[in-house]
């Protein structure tokens, strides 16, 4: 569905099942400047485990056969998880994902990255961009940079690093030093990242990069925006869970996270988040 039609049930195509083979999880959708859609997903376990991508040139009516991005079996991985996908203005596809422990009980074993310059047909060798103990990568294209955000499980902090478009994204030296964002600890993962505008646009000449997450102790939403040289002071929004009839519980008893953040018409920022309490769900 297009943005103009999304508010109408008649504007959506009938639901279909993609992909046909394997137990897929964590689908990630991106679109390039020509309107081609890219669907990245993981098959986390079993004999076909790995990352796969499908494309559509007709707004999702039909899709290509899956193409393998990363073969976790050949790499000797027991589990691959939590992929993210971005397309930069030069048409290059960028993917990042997590090497997990086979039984899911141990800490993640690192975050890896690869790129494709031919629409997802072939991919570069994987590059480790975050050490063990980090999870939930988020890739976005902003201000001629590929930005990578991820979560550190030890303190639930948010980290950031980036590489310029004209840099060598497959070279570890091309990536900036990881930065722990100030004021962003005790944040539930995943968190949301959104980009609005671009350089030279009438609405938002400098563009804007938005970060939003759920505070673990309180359940409040936290928000910051990139101001060109630094992040803005963190803002806090109380969703008033009791008013919605929700009993908020702390992290030990609840599963909550920001699922999506996107810029809407009129300069508004849309946020979707999940809160599963013991007694009720929002």
Automatic annotation (TrEMBL):
Gene3D superfamilies: 2.120.10.10. It holds the Pfam family BNR_4. InterPro entries: Sialidase_sf. This is Sialidase domain-containing protein.
């Amino acid at each position: 569905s297009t943005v103009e039609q999304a508010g109408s049930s008649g504007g959506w195509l009938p639901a279909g099942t993609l992909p046909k083979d394997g137990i897929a999880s964590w689908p990630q959708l991106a679109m390039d400047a020509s309107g081609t859609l890219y669907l990245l997903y993981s098959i986390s376990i079993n004999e076909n485990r790995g990352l796969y991508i499908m494309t559509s040139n007709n707004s999702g009516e039909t899709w290509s056969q899956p193409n393998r991005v990363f073969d976790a079996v050949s790499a000797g991985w027991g589990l691959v998880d939590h992929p993210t996908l971005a397309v930069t203005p030069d048409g290059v596809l960028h993917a990042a994902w997590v090497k997990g422990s086979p039984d899911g009980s141990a800490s993640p074993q690192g975050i890896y990255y690869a790129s494709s310059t031919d629409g997802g047909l072939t991919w570069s060798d994987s590059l480790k961009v975050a050490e063990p103990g980090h999870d939930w990568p988020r890739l976005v294209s902003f201000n001629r940079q590929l930005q990578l955000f991820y979560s550190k499980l030890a303190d639930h902090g948010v980290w950031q690093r980036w590489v310029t478009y004209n840099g060598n994204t497959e070279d570890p030296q091309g990536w900036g030093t990881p930065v722990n964002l100030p004021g962003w600890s005790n944040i539930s993962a995943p968190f949301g990242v959104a980009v609005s505008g671009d350089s030279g646009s009438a609405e938002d000449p400098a563009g804007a990069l938005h970060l939003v997450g759920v505070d673990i102790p309180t359940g409040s939403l936290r928000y910051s925006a990139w101001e060109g040289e630094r992040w803005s002071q963190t803002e806090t929004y109380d969703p008033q869970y009791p008013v919605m009839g929700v009993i908020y519980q702390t992290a030990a008893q609840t599963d909550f996270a920001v699922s999506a953040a996107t810029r809407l018409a009129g300069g508004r920022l849309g946020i979707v988040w999940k809160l599963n309490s013991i007694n009720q769900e929002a």
